[in-house]
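Morning F.,

Quick status update on the modeling queue. The single chain you submitted on Monday has been processed. Sequence for confirmation:
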Amino acid sequence: MQNNIELYFSALTQNETFARAVIAAFAAQMNPSIEELSDLRTAVSEAVTNAIIHGYERDGSRCVKMRCTIDGDLLTVAVRDDGCGIPDVELARKPFYTSKPELERSGMGFAVMEAFMDRVTVESALGKGTTVTMEKRICHAER
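Structure tokens below.
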């Protein structure tokens, strides 16, 4: 059976914590391990933070969209912004690259997402926004 949720929340840094809580609550029905839950929370945190800081440049009047789907043992999370877009996705995915060095960003957001999720895809268009889609198989899911 498939289950979906879709959220829209203001692009405020404090809503990153909200997104972490939502993914943990939604994934709980899959009976994840503590490690899997931690991985999900961390990856979602990175994706939402990127949308807020890079996509919208902290414009809290804009909305981040998060769609979560459970299909069997596969959990998919898509985080979307309708912001500035990424000029060079491959460059942005390289560890330690940051487009905002003045904010002392580590440039590890995509690397962290890739380390904690089974699959990460990034679709972006300048002036139209970015969607980061992450997938993780939950080994402890009830079958």
